[in-house]
Amino acid sequence: MRLTWRRMRLTPRRRFATSQSGLDHKETIAVTLEHDGVTGLGEITPSPIYGQSLESAEAALPRIADGLGDDPLAIEPVIQRLLRDFGDQRATIAAIDSALHDWAARRFNVPLWRWLGLERPRVRTMYTISVATPAEVAEAVDEAIAAGFSALKIKVGGEHDEAALEAIRARFDGPLLLDANQAWSPVEAGKRVEALRRFRPWLIEQPVPKADWRALGELAALRVAPIIADESCETPADVAKLAGVVDGVNIKLAKCGGVREAMRCIAVARACGLRVMLGCFLSSGLAVAPALHIASLADVIDLDGHLLLREDPFPGLESAGELVSAPDTPGLGVAASDN
Ligand SMILES: [Mg+2]
């Protein structure tokens, strides 16, 4: 198998900001796997929250490429080997896993969802509203409503949460997921979450730092809204340990290591009675695609990474307002727009 990669520069429609960081541009890495005249694609979206970066990915890639072997259908052993040897680079493993799945499904000339034995995904995604001034938030919400989104994910943990949420509730009555991205200390989090009650949150995501599982459990017990663990939950083992602590988990391929690990996370979450959310990072349609192909397995969908971009360098996913679906074409169904 031959592996090549290149950096991509992505530009969001609006400045993308959480309680932790903000960006006007983002770089990711597109990965191409070639074997026997068939190509498979993946995208690396590393995050410093999980100790990964473009540089750490680029340092691992030559070694990963050397050890890939020559059987792209041996996905399970390849991924298990990568998790053993490069377990701290799961965003990179997720891109290799994507490329192997894309390769396999293209080789058999079926869409990935069909190759996996799943239904064709046609799902409603939330749309993410960044941390910003209340006026900017109101403008972004008006745009999202006009574009047809009926559930919104609001990034909170900034200075203007209550004013922004007042502006949102003045124009939008639908479900609001409030994502604090670890913003609050365990001491203040209870008060902060109680203060959000009047905005009728549908779900609250990661209010406290990722290691503060006890605080997560205490916040879940307040019953302001179901608590979803995001940064606290990376692997299938994390999912098992979070059972009985939180109400649900946000599973992302770049956190756990791809389609196979995500399906294991989902299986564990189901066995433990946890609500399953499927999320993504800001990325092109290439990183969203493998998650979308398994989206029929999740309860809550947050796969808007590519919809937040000014231009998607890997078009192919179908979307009409909040409805996104994977195409009926072989593999992931996305291709570089410059080809
Ligand atoms: Mg989150």
Task: Please tell me about this protein's structure.
With 339 residues, the chain is an alpha/beta fold. It folds into 2 domains: 2-112, Enolase-like, domain 1 (2-Layer Sandwich), CATH 3.30.390.10; 122-325, TIM Barrel. It is built from 12 helices and 16 strands. The strands form 4 sheets. Strands 7-8-9-10-11-12-13-14 form an 8-stranded parallel β-sheet. Strands 1-4-5 form a 3-stranded antiparallel β-sheet. The chain has a 3-stranded antiparallel β-sheet with strand order 6-16-15, with no helix packed on it. Helix 7 links the parallel strand 9 (176-179) and strand 10 (203-205). Helix 2 packs antiparallel against helix 3 (90-107), helix 5 (134-146) packs parallel to helix 6 and helix 7 (186-196) packs parallel to helix 8. It is globular, with a radius of gyration of 19 Å. The two termini are 21 Å apart. The structure holds magnesium ion (MG). Magnesium ion binds next to loops.
